[in-house]
Design goal:
This protein is an alpha+beta fold. It is built from twelve helices and four strands, in the order H-H-H-H-H-H-H-H-H-E-H-E-E-H-E-H. Helix content is 63%, strand content 10%.
Length: 324
């Protein structure tokens, strides 16, 4: 019963932040970007192009294209992602339908570059919040999610690749290079902001904790922070006595809680914290590599150092011969 309630609460929290992120995203587009005739890329960029060229409704075109992308993505990104993306596509289109008519002129008049910067930050924050909570604003981030499922290409970088062509195509409508430049500036700031929001939530930190009350600290970290601990046996060289060290890996936003738990139990505990480039496994990210037909050689027969050197030289010679 408690697990189902916790699951409902987590889903409700995710949907709240998805709505918040979509509101920031669509407000940034409607108030700062579209009134300046800047094409941002993605499905919204295509919808904006049709709006400027044929006066079609941005929200309706955006939703129609997203439906086609969702059909293509259903078997790749999974049912749960598609359901949340349907929600995201519907909400983003509804919010665009509401916001776009409210802003005939940009919020900051006669300052297009400032509008691009503000709009890009708002949109990047919005999409970053949405994607961090397992949602999607739909559009090219569906394609980004499909690629990110099988590769380690960052979300923002993939979005940037998808959007450059769409933004550049605005030249055929306006015949102005500055519009394209504004669109490219938007994409760089947008991608950087989205990556920063997403990676900040996923970044991991590593703790080494030395304390006489290591057992109490380990139990509290397990129970209160819901993180595992690894006990490392060591020797203090100054005292020549055995010591126990706790090895803990957690998300960056959980570091304050780890410090609070440790200092509450043992104010004299020795703690080190380091940033981790990546944490993969249960409770963290999934390793995304293509194994193809690779089969590791599992054997208790180990190569001698001489054999390893011979193999390395042979591989290098084969590589040199191939290049020639």
């Amino acid at each position: 019963m408690s697990n189902s309630i916790s699951k409902i609460a987590n889903n409700a929290r995710d949907y709240f932040f998805i709505i918040l992120g979509l509101t920031l995203y669509t407000f940034g587009l409607s108030a700062f970007i579209i009134p300046n005739h800047v094409v941002t890329g993605g499905v919204v960029g295509i919808a904006t192009l049709t709006h400027f060229a044929f006066n079609w409704n941005v929200a309706i075109v955006n939703y129609s294209i997203n439906v086609a992308l969702l059909v293509a993505a259903f078997h790749t990104v999974g049912k749960q992602f598609v359901l949340r993306t349907i929600f995201g596509a519907t909400m983003s289109s509804a919010l665009l339908y509401f916001f776009v008519p409210l802003f005939d002129a940009p919020v900051v008049n006669e300052q297009p570059f400032m509008c691009v910067i503000i709009g890009a930050v708002l949109c990047g924050m919005g999409v970053g919040i949405v994607f961090s909570h397992n949602g999607s604003s739909a559009g090219t981030d569906i394609l980004a999610a499909m690629v990110a499922k099988y590769t380690n290409i960052s979300f923002g970088r993939m979005m940037l690749y998808c959007d450059v062509i769409i933004t550049s195509s605005s030249y055929f409508i306006f015949h102005q290079i500055d519009i394209i430049v504004y669109g490219l500036v938007f994409m760089v700031i947008f991608s950087f902001t989205a990556d920063w929001i997403i990676n900040n939530n996923r970044q991991a930190v590593q703790f080494m904790i030395i304390s006489e009350r290591w057992e109490d600290i380990a139990n509290a970290i397990n129970n209160d922070a819901n993180r595992g601990c690894t006990l490392v046996h060591g020797t203090g060289w100054y005292t020549k006595q055995d010591v126990k060290m706790l090895f803990v890996v957690a998300r960056r936003y959980e570091s304050v809680n780890i410090f609070r738990i440790t200092k509450a139990i043992d104010p004299n505990a020795f703690i080190t914290q380091t940033n981790v480039n990546g944490a993969y496994g249960v409770g963290f990210d999934e390793v995304k590599v293509r194994l193809k037909k690779y089969k590791p050689q599992i054997s208790d027969e180990c190569m001698t150092p001489e054999d390893m050197l011979k193999q390395a030289y042979a591989q290098r010679n084969d590589k040199d011969n191939t290049q020639r």
